[in-house]
Design a protein that fits this description.
The complex is a heterodimer of chains A (about 80) and B (about 900). Chain A is of the alpha/beta class and about 80 residues long. Chain A is built from three helices and six strands. In chain A, about 35% of the residues lie in helices and about 20% in strands. The longest helix of chain A has 11 residues. Chain A is globular and about 30 Å long. In chain B, strand 16 and strand 17 form a beta hairpin. Chain B folds into seven domains: about 130 residues, HPT domain (Four Helix Bundle (Hemerythrin (Met), subunit A)), CATH 1.20.120.160; about 110 residues; about 80 residues, no CATH class; about 110 residues; about 60 residues; about 180 residues, 2-Layer Sandwich (Heat Shock Protein 90); about 130 residues, Beta Barrel (OB fold (Dihydrolipoamide Acetyltransferase, E2P)), CATH 2.40.50. Helix content of chain B is about 45%, strand content about 15%. The chains are: A alpha/beta (about 80), B alpha+beta (about 900). Chains A and B meet through helix 1, strand 5, helix 2 and helix 3 of A and helix 8 and strand 3 of B.
Chain lengths: ~80, ~900
């Protein structure tokens, strides 16, 4: 399961393929204000990226992988600080 | 091993080869024909792509070499000579032979590797010397050029600084813009990941090409992203990486100074008058280390968001090399001095380092051609307006309003000027800015902007289809959406269908017999009438079905004609003649079997025309004819016949020469030769064993002459005539039935009640001849028909059937069918004439196929078998 959908957060799996774009979009459509954690992600398909760009969810964590970290930070904006519980 | 995939490949490959070959011929005549070179290239490219699915390395290599050569030709680096065309055509022929081999055995023939190596080397040798290095592994991909990169300034400054530093270090910076087609996800592309493989990526901006739809309406699989990148990778590398989407990529080299743009908040810092003065002195003195120290020092105490800081950072970057460009430094220092938000200060100095490669104001010229006139603005302008609107909406630092308003006002005013907006707009804008200044509130300005954006959204969108960027709108996906409406069907299936329809016709024909029986045997006249009614309906349907299936089998004659341009060219080149082949009526259609039967005879005729008909250029010159000879290949329909004519303007046929030659070969005797008319003499070329070529060439004149043509055409139910005027040319005319499926025959009775069919084409007339009128000449009989003696042959005897003993007087009549066979008229005595009918002729097969004298059989409505005679063989 590439994306793990929790109550109000999505955690990306290692490889997010083109098939994952639709589930992600559907989740973001039904959970406005959901946070997305891309931390574990090492491969992000353009379609998924497009959903993220369009939906502009809060980014809880950027990928650790260098290329994604570098360019996603610019495209998606800096990750939001975790709000104190 | 024959998989469906391989079968499809074989079919496709043949089409592609044909396309490439005919394209090459067009190209040879019109070397500048861009559509043709693109066609040829695409065919070969596709072929290379599809063959890559299979394990035929020799094949792939050869096609690849051909593709490389074509790509160089396409790029205009190499002129297409006849030798080159020869080479490419040879390669295509070889590939065609391999495809045959793959089809029959599933593998390339032995020795293919060697052949491939040799031909590949030959093709490669024709390439320009520098090609190998350039193209190592890369297909001929050429990304479009970016004209006017108007988006550099929008890239983050840090990225630009990094790229600038790399450029100063000697690297060449390329700007790449990649706009994937909307349905790219469906073809398995992943644009973002492509950039991961791009070395030396300094900047990657990912933006939507249009406003995002609301989240609910978003289609995640329609790609509307646009990627813009700066890279130090060389152009060839980028093209290799993007080779599959190369038409969606545009790129351009970026001169380093184009990267420089100073942005930031221009107020809110002290004016560094001292620094400016000092810096100018240092630049003049070329004391770079000192200047650098000064810059660094100042940078530390300047707020990073300020315009000044930006300028300083650029100064620092320019100073990073041992010998900085003083013009650039001065420009940047000026920028600090005036505090002007000049986007590209370095483009302005009069002697820019590379004057020809700079677009002084990259963003504005790009706007100018896109203005949409009344009310509409270009999408770019709309974007700028929007961003200005956003800037105004941002929370303000205290006292920053004036500065921000100022800059926005200036930007919008420039934009209005560039877009050539109506004066009213400019006035409204100035008024709004003044009002905002006066009230110390941005509301008036916001209102104006909002209003424009609202209105312009609508009108800009409306104007888009007409004036929008065509490159982005018309992507090839649209062609794909119009699904291919053509079915490729195996001919066997059509033939089965046709046979079934044929049987239907036959069984339908038994209905009248049934009707007769109903009336005569069962005495029910009403029943008989109903059956007849039903028969009429089925008859109509069957006829329509037959018509429909005939239409399916119809092919244009271009199927045959298409190979002639190549053939004529090759033969003409071999013989050193100049020949222009003109094809007319290539879309005339005829049954597939007819078209196929046409191939060989036509080949022979055309070869004959070129070899014997057309004179050498010298002879033509002497004869006062244009050196370029013309061979006209013309097809048209005449009632239910297709007529194909091969007309040449060569030397024509000399009847005397033909007579001499025929005499010499013993085809005719002297007495007959004397009686021959010119036309009859010309017709002698159709006789077997006749060839007039003075010397035997490898093209024609191998002892098989026009008689082969005649046989071929007559087998298909057609006829050949030839007309020639000495010194002016020859016309060979083939007439063939449109369709072979239905044969019209006359049914006759012979041999005491046996039925035979005789093809209607042969029948001239039917007569009844008194026994007294039959003259006996030794063993043979004859009678006089309108003053001509017609030999009489009894069909019974011909077929070896015992003829019934005849006891009667001379007043009885013989039924004589006068038939015309190969120009001779013969009377055929039969027992009785029956009706004419359309039949579906089935040639004998299996054990019967060896029986001569019959062209086939057909089923009659009452279930009897009708034998159809082949009179030509019988007589």
């Amino acid at each position: 399961m590439p994306f793990q959908f929790a109550k109000n957060t999505v955690t990306a799996g290692e490889s997010c393929t083109v098939e994952d774009a639709l589930p992600l979009l559907e989740f973001l459509q039904s959970h406005r204000g959901a946070k997305v954690d891309l931390g574990p992600c090492t491969h992000l398909h353009t379609a998924v990226l497009q959903v993220l760009l369009a939906a502009k969810p809060k980014i809880a964590g950027l990928p650790k992988e260098a290329f994604l970290a570098r360019w996603l930070a610019q495209a998606l904006g800096p990750p939001v600080r975790k709000t104190a519980k | 091993m024959s998989t469906p995939l391989l079968e499809r490949f074989i079919g496709e490959a043949r089409d592609l080869l044909q396309g490439a070959a005919s394209g090459l011929l067009v190209l040879e005549r019109q070397p500048g024909n861009e559509a043709a070179i693109n066609d040829v290239f695409r065919s070969v490219h596709t072929l290379k792509g599809s063959v890559g699915l299979f394990d035929f390395p020799a094949f792939t290599k050869l096609v690849h070499a051909g593709e490389d050569l074509l790509s160089v030709v396409r790029a205009g680096q190499l002129g297409l000579t006849s030798e080159l065309v020869d080479m490419l055509l040879d390669a295509l022929d070889q590939v065609g032979a391999w495809i045959d081999s793959i089809e029959s055995s599933g593998a390339l023939p032995a020795g293919a590797d060697g052949v491939s190596k040799e031909m590949t080397a030959g093709l490669r040798a024709a390439l320009p010397a520098d090609f190998g290095a350039l193209q190592a592994g890369a297909p001929a991909a050429h990304a479009g050029d970016l004209s006017g990169i108007d988006w550099l300034a929008a890239l983050p400054e840090t990225d630009r600084l990094a790229a600038f530093a790399a450029a100063m270090g000697g690297a060449e910076i390329n700007a790449v813009e990649y706009v994937p087609v909307e349905d790219c996800f469906f073809s398995g592309e992943d644009p973002f990941i492509l950039f991961r493989q791009l070395a030396g990526l300094h900047c990657l901006a990912i933006e939507p090409t249009e406003a995002w739809a609301t989240l609910d309406a978003l289609d995640p699989y329609r790609c509307i992203l646009r990627f813009r990148a700066l890279t130090t990778a060389p152009r060839t590398e980028v093209e290799t990486l993007f080779r599959y989407v190369v038409e969606q990529v545009r790129m351009a080299p970026v001169p380093p100074h184009a990267l420089v743009s100073v942005t930031g908040d221009r107020n809110g810092g002290p004016v560094y008058g001292d620094f400016v003065a000092e810096a100018r002195q240092l630049v003049a003195a070329a004391d770079w280390p000192a200047l650098r120290r000064a810059v660094d020092a100042l940078l530390h105490i300047t707020g990073p968001a300020l315009l000044l800081a930006s300028a300083l950072r650029w100064l620092d970057a320019v100073l990073a090399v041992p010998t900085p460009n003083p013009n650039w430094l001065n420009a940047l220092v000026d920028c600090i001095a005036t505090g002007e938000t000049d986007l590209h200060p370095l483009a302005f100095p009069p002697p820019p380092p590379a004057p020809d490669s700079v677009s002084p104001l990259p963003s504005r010229p790009a706007l100018a051609p896109r203005r949409t006139g009344l009310g509409g603005i270009s999408p770019t302008a709309a974007r700028i307006l929007e961003s200005q609107r956003t800037i105004l909406g941002l929370p303000l630092p205290a006292g920053g309003l004036g500065a921000r308003l100022d800059s926005v006002a200036q930007t919008v005013a420039n934009l209005l000027a560039a877009e050539a907006r109506r004066a009213a707009d400019s006035t409204a804008w100035t008024a709004a800015v003044d009002a905002a200044m006066a009230q110390d509130d941005i509301q008036p300005v916001l209102q104006v902007l909002d209003h424009w954006l609202l209105v312009d959204d609508g009108s800009a969108a409306a104007a888009m289809p007409a004036s929008g960027d065509p490159a982005r709108r018309e992507h090839p996906g649209q062609e794909i959406k119009q699904a291919n409406r053509v079915l490729k069907v195996d001919q066997a299936k059509i033939d089965t269908l046709m046979n079934l329809i044929g049987e239907l016709v036959v069984s339908k024909n038994s209905l009248p017999f049934l009707a007769k029986r109903a009336e005569q045997v069962h005495g029910s006249r009403e029943m008989s009438r109903e059956i007849k009614d039903l028969h009429a309906v089925i008859d109509r349907l069957a006829q329509e079905m037959q018509g429909a299936i005939m239409a399916v089998r119809m092919l244009p004659v271009s199927e045959v004609f298409d190979r002639f341009p190549r053939l004529v060219r090759d033969v003409a080149r071999k013989l050193g003649k100049h020949i222009d082949l003109v094809i007319e009526g290539a879309d005339t259609a005829a049954d597939k079997n007819i078209i196929e039967a046409l191939g060989d005879p036509l080949l022979h005729i055309v070869r004959n025309a070129i070899d014997h008909g057309i004179e050498s250029p010298e002879d033509r010159d002497v004869g006062g004819k244009p050196i370029q000879a013309t061979v006209l290949l013309r097809a048209f329909q005449e009632s239910d016949q297709v007529i194909i004519e091969v007309v040449d303007d060569g030397k024509g046929i000399d009847p005397e020469k033909i007579k001499e030659s025929a005499l010499a070969k013993g085809v005719i005797d002297e007495e007959r030769a004397a009686r021959l008319t010119d036309q009859e003499a010309v017709n002698l070329v159709f006789m077997a064993g006749f060839s007039t070529a003075a010397q035997v060439s490898d093209l024609s004149g191998r002892g098989v002459g026009m008689d082969v043509v005649v046989n071929g055409v007559e087998k298909a139910g057609g006829s050949v005539t030839i007309a020639s005027v000495k010194g002016e040319g020859t016309t060979v005319r083939l007439s063939l039935p449109l369709s072979m499926a239905v044969t019209r025959v006359m049914v006759v009775e012979a041999g005491g009640g046996m039925l035979f069919g005789i093809p209607m084409d042969h029948i001239a007339e039917t007569v009844r001849v008194h026994h007294d009128a039959v003259r006996r000449l030794k063993q043979s009989e004859a009678f006089v028909l309108r003053d001509a003696i017609v030999p009489l042959i009894r069909l019974d005897r011909l077929l070896g059937v015992e003829s019934p003993a005849w006891f009667g007087d001379g007043s009885e009549e013989d039924a004589v069918l006068v038939v015309r066979i190969g120009g001779n008229v013969v009377g055929l005595v039969v027992d009785q004439f029956r009706e004419g009918m359309d039949i579906i002729l089935k040639p004998f097969d299996g054990i019967l196929s060896g029986i001569g004298g019959y062209s086939g059989s057909a089923l009659l409505g009452d279930g009897r078998v009708l034998l159809v005679l082949n009179l030509k063989e019988l007589l």
